[in-house]
Amino acid sequence: MPPAALDAQLRVILQDELLELTQALRTTTLFITHSLEEAIVLGDRVLVMPARAASSPNTARRSPAPAPATSATPPNSRP
Questions:
Q1: What is the pTM of this model?
Q2: pLDDT digit string (tens) for 30-54?
Q3: 4-10 — which CB contacts under 8 Å span 24+ positions?
Q4: CA-based nearest residue to 32, from 12, 46, 18
Q5: Mean pLDDT value across the chain
């Protein structure tokens, strides 16, 4: 099931779990999403593909590498 199909609370919980897992295992993860917000929360780098990426190779744009993500939950919203 795509994360966008989940309710907001469960989606944040799963995003936190994914971040914790990838950081604990120190793995490289390729996460494909249609949500730019989700990509920014989960990724160290974001690759934005144009609408017709399959027919136009080498047209993707990369974002600058931000600091690594630590949590999908904003600090003030944790219990």
A1: 0.56
A2: 888 888 888 888 888 898 887 776 6
A3: 4/33, 4/34, 4/35, 4/38
A4: 46
A5: 76
In Å, what is the CA distance from 14 to each residue of 39, 47, 51? 14, 22, 28
- Reported as half-sphere exposure (CB side, CA atoms, 13 A), residue 70 has a value of 3
**Spatial separation of the C-alpha atoms in residues 70 and 38, rounded to whole Å:** 13
Amino acid at 12: V
Q: Which residues, other chains included, contact 41 with Cβ-Cβ below 8 Å and sequence gap of 6+? A: 15, 69, 72
Q: What distance in Å separates the CA atoms of residue 69 and residue 29, rounded to the nearest whole number?
A: 13
Residues 42 and 15 sit within 8 Å (Cβ to Cβ): yes
